Amino acid sequence: MRDETIEASTIGQVGRRQLLRSTAWMSAAVATGAGSWVIPGRTAYAAEPIRVGIATDLTGAIGFAGNSDLNVAKMCADIINKSGGLLGRPVQLYVEDTASNEAVAVGNVRKLIQRDHVDVVLGGITSSMRNAIKGSIVSRGRTLYIYPQLYEGQECEEYIYCTGPTPAQQCDDLIPWLIAHGGKRFAFPSANYIWPHLLNAYARKSVEKHGGEVIFEEYYPLDQIDYGATVNRIMSDKVDVVFNTVIPPGVGPFFKQLYEAGFLKRGGRLCCVYYDENDLNINASHEIEGLASCLDYFRAVDALDPASARIQQMYDGMFAGNKYLMAAGSAATGMYRGMMLWAAAVKEAGRLDRDAVAHALDHAKIAEGPGGPAEMVPGKRHCRMRMYIATAKNGQFQIEAKSSGLVDPQEC
Amino acid sequence: MATAFNALFEILSFTSIMVLVVLGLGIIASMMGIFNFAHGEFVLLGAYFTWLGHAYGLPVWLAMAFAPVAVGVIGLALERLVIRRFYDRPVMAMLGTYALAVVIRETVRGLIGGLYLNVPAPLVGSVTVDGMEFAQWRLAIIAITLLVIFGSWALLAMTSFGLRVRASLENPALARASGISTKAIYAITFTFGAALAGLAGALVVPIFSLFADLGLRFLIQGFLGVMLGGAGSFVGPILGAGVVGSASAALPWVISPVVADVAVFVAAIGLMKLLPNGMLAGRRV
């Protein structure tokens, strides 16, 4: 009771004028919507800009990935605008935060469509996010949607284009390599959601086709952080290769427990196909020595591909001192391909009409990108790209193998 | 046989972690009647300060020793500024501490860029006994947990300070009339609880790595432990945490982990139905 009277009298002391003044910014924020902003092209153009919607997770659990994606989108817009824009018009980014939260995201993405009338939307990182926002963009919004993250495949809806690696791209070269450089006895410890289930189904076929066997495939709650039972099973069943799809926060303690149990000392091979440069910090480097990953880009690719090195250098120059890396597991490289393939399609179509751009995007190609060239597979709305197998050595990825050409996504 | 020993060690080690995390939560809930939803974030702060100290070049063990002090100071400041206003309104206290939790968590997320950061353990490597590997740091955590439990128990049960804390809990008006400054007692108790959370965070960060949702992971199971053991005594929450911790570490050895996760909660709720006043109903300290 006493406290309430104090509160009431404090409000009295603030005064109406001050209250108005202090809340004015709030009404402005409510009107425009917090977390949305516009990044104008740097060059001055007479023509009305082309509107590109970026909907990605700038805050929340996977904010680190979303910020990398936004950085890459800014860099691509810069490249496009410096080379004269598209159809004589500059490109302008309209950014909305999907906040690692599907409920928040849907409302924010609608703003891109209904208020900003963007010509294309790129973004979404998790599959659940893609599923939450795609309807607002593609069906009700009648807009193109480009999804940049590596994922479990099977997204075959019209007007949705996927520019990240699929299970086929991540497994086809990797599984035989693992059997040659690890052994035949596989374990599939996995987080219990859609991506591990579908990836494992593909990987299991591949393991069996190449003469290996899956000793066990087991699913854990997403927030499980103690893996004593799993580690014991891996050790006592003499598993050679741990094909891991446990995600953070569990993956760090899991790898640590495996290391402490002597899995690496015994010659065991860790494998985790979403692992990029960001994830190397989760464990001490000796705990994950030799961990194999298979992605479309690693920093170490720069030594093999001059175009990749140039793009990486441009990124580092634009975002010097920024803690968000251009890492493949964050969807940053898929974002680059998405932006540039879309730009190529707009150039070919000569207009922004959805069907015309979709028709051109269906067979769009880019000669350069992080990791190498890329092209859409006609009729499949997925992307052929070069893939690399890398292993962690002393806290850095080192390239072990490079796909002979562009790897087919084998989707749809 | 080797498997049984391994299982026992893993279960014991996870149970100690759970108890360590719940200790501060239990003390604040039992001695002050506040359900501190920011407790997980105090654990996170302990982990964060350990990482910070290490990043600035301190040896890990020194950073670990510094973390509880820093978290205790923050706890004291929050008690004086915010928590004390909620003592007679427990429901508001939950909302208020929840809000604090969000502020702390998102601030730390911003500071570490939302990444997962590794902190080395002060003791690296394993002890090999009869072909079985026991991680040294996990052994150390088990030992430290036992020490901390004994220390806290001795403080509350055997010193005159402990007596005053319990007096303030049982009958604040009478305690004040007897010349005990309940205001000071509450402030010290909350600081102590926060420092224990900070210690827990500092000790577990080498195992789980530093990430913004570290505390959140333990909060629900921690509360389950407190409810199960019964708030109002010192030993109750520890027992509760022991049961929840060992069950959630032991069940995945025998049944599917996804089922085990749910089973722990179902079993705990069942137990609460049978023992509505906690496992130590009626007994104090």
CATH fold-level assignment of the largest domain in chain A: Rossmann fold
CATH class of the largest domain in chain A, named Alpha Beta
Q: What is the helix tally of chain B?
A: 11
Q: Approximately what portion of the residues of chain A adopt beta-strand conformation?
A: 15-25%
Radius of gyration of chain B: 19 Å
Say how many strands of chain A there are.
16
The counted number of beta strands of chain B is 2
Shape of chain B: globular
The count of helical stretches of chain A stands at: 13
Quaternary state of the chains: heterodimer
Strand content of chain B: under 5%
Q: Order of helices and strands of chain B, N to C? A: HHHHEEHHHHHHH
Major beta sheet, strand line-up of chain A: 1-3-2-4-5-6
| Sheet/helix structural class of chain B | mainly alpha
Separation, N- and C-terminal Cα atoms of chain B: 38 Å
Widest beta sheet: strand line-up of chain B: 1-2
Structural class of chain A, by secondary structure, is alpha/beta
Largest interface: A-B, 40 and 38 residues
Q: Which features would summarize this protein structure in a list?
A:
heterodimer; A: 412 residues; alpha/beta; Rossmann fold; 3 domains; six-stranded mixed beta sheet; four-stranded parallel beta sheet; 13 helices; disordered N terminus; B: 285 residues; two-stranded antiparallel ribbon; 2 strands
Characterization of this structure:
With 412 residues, chain A is an alpha/beta fold. Chain A folds into three domains: 2-31, no CATH class; 33-165 and 313-381, Response regulator (Rossmann fold); 169-295 and 388-402, Rossmann fold. Chain A has 13 helices and 16 strands. In chain A, the strands form four sheets. A six-stranded mixed sheet of chain A has the order 1-3-2-4-5-6, sandwiched between helices. In chain A, strands 8-7-9-10 form a four-stranded parallel sheet, covered by helices on one side. Chain A has a three-stranded antiparallel sheet with strand order 11-15-16. The longest helix of chain A is centred in the first third of the chain and has 20 residues, at 63-82. The radius of gyration of chain A is 23 Å and the shape is globular. Chain B has a two-stranded antiparallel sheet with strand order 1-2. The longest helix of chain B has 31 residues, at 2-32. Helix content of chain B is 75%, strand content 3%. The relative contact order of chain B is 0.20. Chain B starts with a helix and ends in an 11-residue tail after the last helix. With 285 residues, chain B is mostly helical. In chain B, a hairpin with a 2-residue loop joins strand 1 and strand 2. Chain B has one domain (2-214). At the A-B interface, helix 3, strand 8, helix 9 and helix 10 of A face helix 1, helix 10 and helix 11 of B.
